[in-house]
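Batch manifest, entry 17 of 40.
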Amino acid sequence: MSDPAFERWLRRAVRGLDAPTAAAVRAELTDHYAAAIADGQQAGLSREAAGQAALHALGDSATIAAGFRQAHGARRRYLLAAVAGMLYPPLYLLLMQFHARSAGLMVFNPALFLPLIYIVYAARVLLAERPHGANLVRYEQLIHTGIVAMCVPRLVGWLLYHQPIIAEAYTRTLGEARSLNEFLLNGMALIGLLLAGAGCVALGERTLHLREGLYGLLKPASGLLMLAGGGLLLYCLGTFSGSLPLRESAEALAVLACMSAGVLWALIFLRARDEAPRLA
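Output type: structure tokens
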């Protein structure tokens, strides 16, 4: 006979899981519950008393549900982050040919920078969960704020002027801004670059000195992240100084370092996914 109290507990325990995973978890928990009742009855308890003891032993349903969601979400999160890291280099090269078109830029910026936002988020969560990790929220927020502040003016600039803003074009310098609005858009984009670059350098430096090694890949990934951040900062310097060769070299450094770091983090995420608990 079905136990209404256990069924209520079970519904709460699997809340938030997808249907196949919830079904597997329900079956496993039901088996544990039935075995605990059998043990209780063998020890001399009544069916009702054994059921109450078994339900109490299972623990708080909300806590159990949170643990299941975390375990299930970890595998999915690290798989998505690994895919983002692996696809970033070919995606960048593919989209570069559409960069000069306004319609292409509407896709170019989100397609390139949204994966980076997710990779940084997944890396922060992974390191927060490791025994020798750290809380890196402020670095994540700095990088994410910089990316948004960098992308929005680019999109607005294309919509208003149908051409790249000065901060991303190699044909003009800041002194050639034709209006206050254009100058402000470029200023916001450069602030975003500064924030993202500083955030990458700071995050790379912080993770470089952690005791956590992440399969021996964290230190090289941290070094590459610092190089990417340094490239963004040099790009800003080239934009302020009007040095187009410096901007071109700095962008190449930032892109290559970011691509390489993305691949290393993808390998880290795949290893972390293999270690995450399986629910089904």
